[in-house]
């Protein structure tokens, strides 16, 4: 990539919008995932009796198992949120930035 095209891209307001939106979403989703995982680990450390309770009196499935599966499922869901946003808004902005820089 030429330095002229690189300069056009870096000076484009859409580029700054893209970087800002992408970083904001990435940090927000990362914070949510970290809070979930650390929260689960803290529950293991400080509330093991709650996590080992069964979900029903005649069940062998502990509450902690459901919470753990929920953490993993939510992480996958949040990854999907990022992918949808990246394939939609972020890709559109990237193509617009490249087209404008190519002119």
Mean pLDDT over the residues: 95
The poorly predicted ranges are: none
**What fraction strand?**
under 5%
Oligomer: single chain
Q: What kind of sheet is the major sheet?
A: none
How much helical structure, as a percent, in the residues?
over 70%
Number of strands: 0
Describe this structure as you would to a colleague.
With 103 residues, this protein is an all-alpha fold. The protein has one domain (29-102). Helix content is 84%, strand content 0%. The chain contains four helices and no strands. α2 packs antiparallel against α4 (63-102). The two termini are 14 Å apart. The relative contact order is 0.15. The model has no long low-confidence stretch (mean pLDDT 95).
Keywords:
0% strand, 103 residues, elongated, 84% helix, mainly alpha
SSE arrangement:
Layout: H1 3-11, H2 13-46, H3 48-51, H4 63-102
Helix pairs in contact: 1-4, 2-4
